[in-house]
Amino acid sequence: MIWQLLRRDLGLLLPGGKSGGTLLPLLFFLAVAMLYPFAVGPDAPLLARTGGGVIWIAALLASILPLDRLIAPDLELGVFDQLALRGISDEAVIAVRITAHWLSFAPLLLFSALPAAALLGLEDGSVRLVMLGLLAGTPGLAAIGVMIAALTASLRGGAALSGLMLIPLAVPILIFGAGSLARGDASGIALCAAISLVLVAIAPFAGGAALRAARET
Amino acid sequence: MDGGSALHITGSNGIGKSSLMRILAGLLRPYSGSVQRTGTVALLDENPALDPQLPLGKALQFWGRVDRCDDAGEIASVLDMDSLLDVPFRYLSTGQRKRAAFARLVNQGAPIWLLDEPLNGLDAEARKRITALIKLHCSDGGICVIASHQAMDLPDCETLPLEEYAL
């Protein structure tokens, strides 16, 4: 049952294919990394020092783009109602959706962080920290994303609102994930991973409650 | 209601037929009172819950797998939808969507059917087929609750006019 759900969610969210999502968030991510040197000038040491932070901001913004497709279409279709009738808890449904959302954007994001790092001229050590940090932080971003999408799915103008709501919640991940770049060691990444884990643990319950609340409006 | 019985809930628009159906399904909490039922429940309402971008066959297959229904395609021929299985759901007409949602409901294999306006948008032939399926379900010991302002051609069907209970 869970496997069937995951298969359907991946079909909905993975880039490419007839029913799949788009590569737009990734192209957006690469575009930000590409535009940054044009904006601040071709000063290589400056780019290398600030590039890691730019990659983090770009990743955060890219994770906002698919939010309106995460929950709202299925809520409208009545898929969540039908799953609830079959005794599948809303929490399980949200947990599966978080997994699918993470799988659909994080691996590709990590992959495109490499060309982005090359564009910004990051050093090897920084690239390693950015990659590790993104690996630790993206599950948390996925959890926040699905949670916010569930909260705002039944509201008008939910898409714009969800972006605004995601940013403050993502601040801890950003502080510790990108902060490890300034210190140059992985201790910040450990904290970033801890925050990610907490968010992944909370999100199914918060998202499930949001689905139930949406059902009664 | 006992097994094999059918109930037709009637009432004007906005009186609360659909809300009552959602309460019976356990999707809404009643303001007062409680719902007691044994057995699983299947709901047909205005949301088809079938992926619009997928071909109908694939969309039905997903629910067939969730419901562990082995012959998910069989109902499609009963409802005269064989030729539509390769058509993406979003291209189907109102009546075809209704029939597709009904196929999903039948495949669920639940003993209690909650049908909210099951005949809306259907032509005479499809109406006959669906009424026959409802009769078959009841004769197999299933329960059917139908909310509709249209007349239902069911012989042993009790009617519950919601107007009598309105505040």
Structure description:
Chain A: One of its GO terms (cellular component) is plasma membrane. Chain A: Keywords: Cell inner membrane, Cell membrane, Cytochrome c-type biogenesis, Membrane, Transmembrane, Transmembrane helix, Transport. Chain A: It holds the Pfam family CcmB. Chain A: Its main location: membrane. The complex is a heterodimer of chains A (217) and B (167). With 217 residues, chain A is mainly α. Helix content of chain A is 84%, strand content 0%. Chain A is elongated and about 60 Å long. The model of chain A has no long low-confidence stretch (mean pLDDT 89). Chain B has one domain (6-165): 3-Layer(aba) Sandwich (Rossmann fold). Chain B is built from 5 helices and 5 strands. Chain B has helices spanning 17-25, 56-66, 74-78, 94-108, 124-139, and strands at 6-10, 41-44, 112-116, 143-147, 157-161. The two termini of chain B are 24 Å apart.
Features:
heterodimer, A: 217 residues, mainly alpha, 10 helices, 84% helix, B: 167 residues, alpha/beta, Rossmann fold, globular, transmembrane (chain A), heme transmembrane transporter activity (chain A), Heme exporter protein B (chain A)
